[in-house]
Design goal:
Layout (H helix, E strand, L loop, with lengths): L4 E3 L5 E3 L14 E3 L5 E3 H9 L18 E2 L1 H13 L17 H12 L5 H17 L1 H8 L3 H11 L4 H10 L6 H8 L2 H10 L5 H16 L4 H8 L4 H9 L7 H15 L5 H6 L2 H8 L5 H14 L3 H9 L3 H8 L5 H17 L1 H9 L2 H9 L5 H14 L17 H9 L1
Helix pairs in contact: 3-4, 4-5, 4-7, 6-7, 7-10, 9-10, 10-13, 12-13, 13-16, 16-19, 18-19, 19-20, 19-22, 21-22, 22-23
Keywords: Transferase, Ubl conjugation pathway
Catalytic activity: S-ubiquitinyl-[E2 ubiquitin-conjugating enzyme]-L-cysteine + [acceptor protein]-L-lysine = [E2 ubiquitin-conjugating enzyme]-L-cysteine + N(6)-ubiquitinyl-[acceptor protein]-L-lysine
EC number: 2.3.2.27
């Protein structure tokens, strides 16, 4: 292996000893192991996590897995980055050190002890939240020290207090196990409290409440327990109001809101509650604001709500529903295509007006493209059913003029069969 300089793709030469021996990339957070070798933290942690117990370079056994930050080398790398800034090299940031388990354990004890002053407990919770925000590694350390159980206790033992709100903000940063989810959804007082928080004066408290509702509903297998949550009065109103907040001011609101709404709408018998709360109008009004993953979830929710008569009627009554679904049917992902096609199929099966709107919006072109694409079989089946349903609604010359599609004759024969 060379020991001098090695060229990068951009023509920048990087000192060999600044590269991680594992990834061969410029080290951002160099750490030294027990054998004296230095690696980038992410690379050596991945090496150890996959079960390796030897030093990658020397092959000597690692006597312990302590990673000591190499501050001198990191500063040299940063100086080199600054010196080569004119060549497009960006300075690596000074990494934040992983949370010390002893410190985390002390903070959790401080936060959970009822004998401590409220101010002291709040300070501990805020320090923990800061650590959790810093990295996945820190969240893993915090979670491993029984944090979720402690935080659940603080949230619900101190209802309507700042302690509860601060614990809630930290708790929603972690996934919960099923037993922890059940401990919330099976307790009517806890669900009623979370429902009240959906209307709190603080938007952050409202969003965190919706986040915990989504976590516990999605994490509970029992349909009966999930239905108990969805049946709580005003829970849909609270979640939908969160979704109406401007994304520029509250970027988490729309994401958390649609996740919670989708989880609640998985309970079929309470979907009419979502419709009555204005879910149809809000989903269509905000559809263009969603990022890819959230757009998929929004379309899945629309399809679920279209399966109940009230939902179908509400979406059909919105002038933008069908044009928007037709427009985006192929633009997001295979899943989104499947959900949009399913929603259109439900709407057009129930409403002649929706059929006319779909044809006017150019659904024929979209469906021809869809059945010839590599999308899922379920999406294609829905598209074929929709073609068959709408075959009497096409303008006389619309199919005949579809010469841009090499397989359109096959579709025409299918529609006319």
């Amino acid at each position: 292996m060379p020991g001098s300089l090695e060229p990068l793709d951009l023509g920048v030469q990087i000192p060999y000893h600044f590269r991680c021996p594992i990834s061969l990339e410029l080290m951002c957070d160099p750490v030294t192991v027990s054998t004296g070798q230095t690696y980038d933290r992410a690379s050596i942690e991945s090496w150890v996590a996959t079960g390796n117990t030897t030093c990658p370079v020397t092959r000597a056994p690692l006597t312990d897995f302590t990673l000591i930050p190499n501050h001198t080398l990191r500063r040299l790398i940063q100086d080199w980055c600054v010196a080569n800034r004119s060549l497009g090299v960006e300075r690596i940031p000074t990494p934040k050190q992983p949370a010390d388990p002893a410190l985390v354990r002390s903070l959790l004890t401080q936060a959970s002890s009822e004998s401590n002053a409220t101010h002291s407990r709040l300070t501990a919770l805020r320090r923990l939240r800061g650590l959790a925000r810093d990295s996945d590694k820190n969240r893993s350390v915090i979670s491993s020290l029984n944090a979720r159980e402690i935080l659940l206790q603080v949230v619900f033992a101190n209802m309507d207090s700042e302690l509860s709100h601060e614990s809630l903000a930290l708790l929603v940063m972690f996934p919960l196990g099923e037993s922890e989810c059940v401990s919330v959804v099976s307790d009517s007082d806890r669900i009623a409290y979370l429902s009240r928080l959906l209307f709190h004066s603080s938007i952050d408290v409202r969003i965190n409440s919706a986040a915990l509702i989504e976590i516990v509903v999605a994490g509970t297998r029992s349909p009966e327990l999930r239905a108990q949550v969805s049946n709580v009065d005003e829970i849909f109103e609270g979640v939908i109001e969160i979704m109406k907040n401007p994304i520029s001011s509250y970027p988490r609101a729309l994401k958390i809101g649609v996740k919670a709404l989708f989880a609640l709408c998985l309970v079929k018998q309470t979907r009419t509650k979502a419709v009555s709360a204005g879910a149809a109008e809000t989903l269509i009004d905000r559809l263009s604001d969603f990022e890819k993953c959230d757009a998929e979830r929004a379309l899945a929710t629309i399809e679920l709500l279209c399966r109940v008569p009230a939902g179908c009627a509400a979406f059909a009554a919105h002038a933008l529903t069908v044009p928007l679904l037709v427009k985006i049917i192929l633009k997001i992902s295979d899943r989104a295509t499947e959900y949009a096609a399913g929603a259109l199929l439900s709407l057009c099966s129930e409403s002649e007006m929706s059929q006319r709107d779909a044809v006017a919006a150019g659904v024929l072109t979209q469906l021809l493209l869809l059945v010839q694409s590599d999308c899922t079989d379920r999406a294609k089946r829905k598209a074929q059913l929709l073609l068959k349903l709408l075959r009497d609604s096409w303008p006389e010359d619309s199919i005949g003029n579809s010469d841009d599609f090499p397989c359109s004759e096959v579709v025409i024969r299918f529609c006319c069969s």
